[in-house]
From TrEMBL:
<keyword id="KW-0820">tRNA-binding</keyword>
<feature type="domain" description="TcmA/NAT10 helicase">
    <location>
        <begin position="210"/>
        <end position="370"/>
    </location>
</feature>
<keyword id="KW-0819">tRNA processing</keyword>
<keyword id="KW-0067">ATP-binding</keyword>
<keyword id="KW-0963">Cytoplasm</keyword>
<protein>
    <recommendedName>
        <fullName>tRNA(Met) cytidine acetyltransferase TmcA</fullName>
        <ecNumber>2.3.1.193</ecNumber>
    </recommendedName>
</protein>
<dbReference type="InterPro" id="IPR027417">
    <property type="entry name" value="P-loop_NTPase"/>
</dbReference>
<feature type="binding site">
    <location>
        <position position="353"/>
    </location>
    <ligand>
        <name>ATP</name>
    </ligand>
</feature>
<feature type="binding site">
    <location>
        <begin position="502"/>
        <end position="504"/>
    </location>
    <ligand>
        <name>acetyl-CoA</name>
    </ligand>
</feature>
<comment type="function">
    <text>Catalyzes the formation of N(4)-acetylcytidine (ac(4)C) at the wobble position of tRNA(Met), by using acetyl-CoA as an acetyl donor and ATP (or GTP).</text>
</comment>
<feature type="domain" description="N-acetyltransferase">
    <location>
        <begin position="531"/>
        <end position="592"/>
    </location>
</feature>
<feature type="domain" description="N-acetyltransferase">
    <location>
        <begin position="411"/>
        <end position="530"/>
    </location>
</feature>
<dbReference type="Pfam" id="PF08351">
    <property type="entry name" value="TmcA_N"/>
</dbReference>
<dbReference type="InterPro" id="IPR024914">
    <property type="entry name" value="tRNA_acetyltr_TmcA"/>
</dbReference>
<dbReference type="InterPro" id="IPR016181">
    <property type="entry name" value="Acyl_CoA_acyltransferase"/>
</dbReference>
<dbReference type="InterPro" id="IPR038321">
    <property type="entry name" value="TmcA_C_sf"/>
</dbReference>
<dbReference type="InterPro" id="IPR000182">
    <property type="entry name" value="GNAT_dom"/>
</dbReference>
C-alpha cells in the first residue's frame, strides 16, 4: 500500500515498474485509476496504442514517442509512465518529469530480464558510422540504472514477476490507487515571489530584464499576467517565443486578466522574425523561452522596445538556460542606455507545480547534472596558479563511471558554457566510442574541457557516395561536409580530431587555459599511439597519427579570432544560418603533417576564392568585423576568384550529374558564366543568358525565379542543371 499523505508538501510519487508491457500497464493504471488521463511515453508506442480502448470510447491514456516529448513542454499531467525497455531518452525523462503536478505519479518501466543486455533502439542516433547498437554496451544505461537504485533515488520498485511468485495472496505486494487530485486552481493570485518580480518590472528602472528560473515556478503565469495588465494600462506591448504552441499557460492567464476587466483583446503574439520587420517600437516586449532563440536575434529584438523582458528556463530540459544567461547577460550589461539600470535580474525559486524540495526534481537534477554542485562551486580555480599547477587527463566511455566526480564537474562546465547542452549530451559522451574528453585540471578542479570526436578514414566507396550525395553516414561531420559541400575528393581518407565542444571556467577565461589545452591535444594527436592508451574500454587497435585537428562552430568574430590564434584556418563557410545560434557555421582545420599542410593550403585558397565572390553577394547581413575575420589572410583572393579551374568543373559536374547542393556551387558557377561571357560562348541572345546573369549577380534571397517561369525549387534546379551542362560542354 502506498500512502498519498503528501498533500502538504505536494511531492510527486515515483515508481519503477518491472514486468511485461501488460503487467506494467496494469500496475500503472491501477496507481492512477482516479487521475485524469495519464501519459505514456516510449521509443515506440505502437504496443501501448494497441492496448488502449478503441476510439469509440474514452482512451485509458495518451501516448507520445521520445521524439514527441518536446511537444509536452508547458503541459501538466497527473501521471506519466516512461517505458525504457526498448530504448532510453534522457531528454524525454527530464522534460516529462517536469510536467507531473504535485502528488502525481511519475513511473519508469523496465523489463524483468537483464535490461543492460537488451539492444537499445534509441542508441543509433548517438553512434557514428560504422557502429551499430548491437556492438555497444551502453555505459549510459548502467549509469542510469545505478542512479535509479541509489540511496537518494525516490523510486519505489513494483515487480509484477515477484508478485506472481509469492506463495500466498497475503504475501503479495498490494497496489492501491491514489485518490483523485484536487482540481488545479485556475488563475490563482500571484505568489509573493511573482508579485515582487512584477513590481520590479512595472517600475521600469532597467532597459532590459532577465527572468531565469527552473520549470514549475510560474514564469508563464507571471508573463501572461504582466502582459495583460500593461495592455490594460494602455501600453504598447508584444510577446514573442520560439513557437506559439508552448505558451498556452501564458495565454490562459492573459485572457483571464482581460476578461475580468471586460476587455476582449487578442494576445499580441508575433513570431521573432515577424517582429523584426514590424515598424512598431513597443513600450515593453516579452520574450518567452529566450534561450531557444539565437543570441543575434535576441540582440535585435532588444532594440525593438523601450523595455524588454527575456524569460527562460534555468536548467536543461530543452537546453540549459544558464549558458544563455551568462553570455547574453554580458551583452545586456554593456548596452548603452539612459535608464537607471542597463539590466535587472528577476528570480522565481519556489515551485508552484509541485512541493518544495521535491525528490523527483532533485533526482533529475542530480542524475543529469542540471543544477550547480555546491562542492564544485566551492572548488573554484585560483586563477593566479593556473599556469603553474594544471595537469591534463583524458577520459572516455566506461572510465567515466569510475570517476563520477570528473563526470559531474565536466558536464556542469559544459552546461554553464553551452546553452544547447541537454541531458541527451550526457548519453552521447558516455556511449559514443569515437568521443573522449581532454581535461585541464588544477588539483581535482576541471578548469577547461575539450570534447574530441574522431572522424574520417572513410572507405573509398563510401567517400565517393558522400561526394555524389547518395550516402550520408552517421557522424563524421568534417569529412562529410568537405566531400558533399566542397567536392574535396580525398577528404574522406584523412583522420580528423574534431573539437566539438570546448569550455573554460568563467574565472579562468582569457588567461590562455583553453589554448594550452589545445596545444596539449595537438601534442597527443601527433603521436603514433594505440587508441587503447587513451580509451581503456575500447578494443580497437590503431597506431596511425591524426592528420588534422578540426572544429565547426557558429561564426562570430570573437570565436574566429580564438581559433585563428591557435593556428586553425577556415576551409568552409555554411550557406544557411543555424537555427539554434542564428549564425553561419564555419569549419576550420589545423594540419598536423606535411601532406595535411599541403592539402589544407589548397582548401583554404579555394575557400578564399569562393568567399571573395559569395561574401558581398550572399552574406550581406554579416557585420564588418565578422566579414574581416572570415577574410583573414586573404591577400591573394582577387587573383583566385576569377580563374575557372578544373576543380570548379568537377564541382559543377557533381551538381549537374549528381546531388551537389546548388548553394555550394554559386561561386564556381559565377566564374564559369563570367568566363563564358568574356569568351563570347554565352551571349545576350542565348535563352539562358538573362537567367544565368541574374543568378551570378543577385543573392539567392533576391532572385525571382518565377520571372523565368520556374515556380518550384525542383524546376529551378532542373533548369539550372541543363543550363550549366550546356556551358560546360562549350568549355
Amino acid at each position: 500500500m502506498y500512502s498519498s499523505d503528501n498533500s502538504v508538501d505536494k511531492h510527486r510519487h515515483c515508481f519503477l515498474l518491472k514486468g511485461s508491457i501488460n503487467e506494467v500497464l496494469s500496475d500503472f493504471l491501477r496507481l492512477c485509476e482516479y487521475f485524469s488521463t495519464p501519459l505514456i511515453c516510449a521509443h515506440d508506442v505502437a504496443q501501448y496504442d494497441q492496448l488502449n480502448l478503441p476510439s469509440s470510447r474514452k482512451p485509458l491514456f495518451r501516448t507520445c514517442s521520445f521524439k514527441q516529448a518536446r511537444q509536452e513542454l508547458g503541459q501538466t499531467n497527473d501521471a506519466v509512465l516512461i517505458d525504457l525497455t526498448q530504448g532510453v531518452s534522457a531528454s524525454a525523462l527530464a522534460i516529462l518529469s517536469g510536467t507531473v503536478r504535485g502528488n502525481g505519479v511519475f513511473a519508469i518501466a523496465l523489463p524483468n530480464e537483464n535490461w543492460l543486455s537488451i539492444v537499445d533502439q534509441d542508441l543509433p542516433r548517438y553512434l557514428p558510422w560504422p557502429y551499430e547498437s548491437e556492438q555497444i554496451e551502453s555505459n549510459f544505461k548502467l549509469f542510469l540504472l545505478n542512479h535509479l537504485h541509489s540511496d537518494t533515488s525516490p523510486f519505489k520498485t513494483i515487480n509484477s514477476y515477484e508478485k506472481q511468485q509469492s506463495q500466498t495472496p497475503s504475501k503479495r505486494a498490494k497496489i492501491q490507487a491514489f485518490p483523485a487530485l484536487d482540481l488545479i486552481e485556475e488563475n490563482a493570485p500571484l505568489t509573493k515571489e511573482q508579485a515582487k518580480a512584477q513590481s520590479c518590472l512595472f517600475k521600469k528602472k532597467a532597459k532590459s530584464y532577465v527572468l531565469i528560473a527552473p520549470r514549475g515556478r510560474g514564469k508563464s503565469t507571471l508573463l501572461g499576467d504582466s502582459l495583460a495588465k500593461m495592455l490594460q494600462a494602455g501600453k504598447k506591448v508584444a510577446l514573442t517565443a520560439p513557437n506559439q504552441s508552448a505558451i498556452q499557460t501564458l495565454k490562459n492567464r492573459f485572457e483571464h486578466v482581460l476578461k475580468n476587466a471586460n476587455l476582449d483583446v487578442e494576445m499580441p503574439f508575433f513570431a521573432p522574425d515577424a517582429l523584426l520587420v514590424n515598424d512598431t517600437h513597443w513600450d515593453m516586449l516579452f520574450v518567452d523561452e529566450a534561450s531557444m532563440i539565437p543570441v543575434p536575434l535576441l540582440v535585435a529584438l532588444n532594440k525593438k522596445a523601450e523595455h524588454c523582458l527575456f524569460s527562460t528556463t534555468d536548467y536543461g530540459y530543452e537546453g540549459a538556460g544558464k549558458g544563455f544567461g551568462i553570455r547574453f547577460y554580458r551583452y545586456l550589461e554593456a548596452q548603452s542606455t539612459q535608464k537607471t539600470l542597463s539590466v535587472q535580474s528577476l528570480t522565481l525559486s519556489l515551485p508552484i507545480r509541485w512541493g518544495g524540495n521535491d525528490p523527483l526534481e532533485n533526482w533529475i537534477n542530480d542524475c543529469f547534472f542540471l543544477t550547480p554542485n555546491q562542492e564544485l562551486e566551492t572548488s573554484r580555480i585560483h586563477s593566479d596558479n593556473l599556469v603553474k599547477s594544471h595537469t591534463y587527463k583524458a577520459i572516455a566511455g566506461a572510465e567515466w563511471l569510475t570517476q563520477p566526480d570528473f563526470l559531474s564537474r565536466t558536464f556542469q562546465l559544459l552546461v554553464s558554457a553551452h546553452y544547447q547542452t541537454s541531458p541527451d549530451n550526457l548519453r552521447w559522451i558516455l556511449d559514443d566510442p569515437s568521443v573522449y574528453a581532454h581535461l585541464s585540471l588544477q588539483g581535482s578542479a576541471v578548469n577547461s574541457v575539450a570534447i574530441v570526436t574522431e572522424e574520417g578514414q572513410l572507405p573509398d566507396e563510401l567517400s565517393r557516395a558522400v561526394l555524389q550525395g547518395t550516402r550520408r553516414p552517421r557522424g563524421h561531420l568534417i569529412p562529410q561536409s568537405l566531400l558533399a559541400h566542397e567536392g574535396i575528393e580525398d577528404a574522406g581518407q584523412y583522420r580528423y580530431w574534431r573539437i566539438s565542444r570546448i569550455a573554460t571556467q568563467e574565472n579562468a577565461q582569457n588567461k590562455g587555459v583553453a589554448s594550452q589545452l589545445l596545444n596539449h591535444i595537438e601534442t597527443v594527436a601527433k603521436r603514433s599511439f594505440a587508441r587503447n592508451d587513451i580509451m581503456k574500454d575500447c578494443s580497437i587497435q590503431d597506431t596511425a597519427p591524426c592528420d588534422f585537428l578540426s572544429t565547426s562552430f557558429a561564426a562570430t568574430a570573437e570565436v574566429i579570432a580564438f581559433w585563428l590564434k591557435n593556428g586553425f584556418i577556415p576551409v568552409r563557410l555554411g550557406t544557411t544560418k543555424d537555427q539554434a545560434s542564428g549564425c553561419y557555421s564555419l569549419m576550420m582545420v589545423k594540419p598536423l603533417s606535411k601532406i595535411a599542410q599541403e592539402r589544407a593550403s589548397i582548401w583554404h585558397q579555394d575557400y578564399l576564392a569562393n568567399l571573395a565572390i559569395n561574401l558581398p553577394r550572399d552574406y550581406q547581413d554579416l557585420d564588418t568585423e565578422l566579414a574581416e575575420a572570415l577574410n583573414n589572410n586573404a591577400s591573394d583572393k582577387r587573383k583566385l576568384e576569377n580563374i575557372f579551374t578544373e576543380k570548379d568543373r568537377n564541382d559543377l559536374t557533381l551538381f549537374v550529374d549528381h546531388h551537389r547542393p546548388y548553394l555550394t556551387i554559386r561561386a564556381q558557377l559565377t566564374r564559369l558564366v563570367r568566363q563564358a561571357i568574356a569568351q563570347k560562348t554565352l551571349i545576350a541572345s542565348n535563352r539562358n543568358y538573362l537567367l544565368l546573369n541574374t543568378v551570378i549577380s543577385q543573392s539567392t534571397d533576391e532572385i525571382d525565379f518565377t520571372a523565368f517561369g520556374l515556380k518550384t525549387k525542383k524546376q529551378v534546379e532542373k533548369h539550372l542543371k541543363l543550363a550549366v551542362n550546356e556551358l560546360l560542354k562549350e568549355k
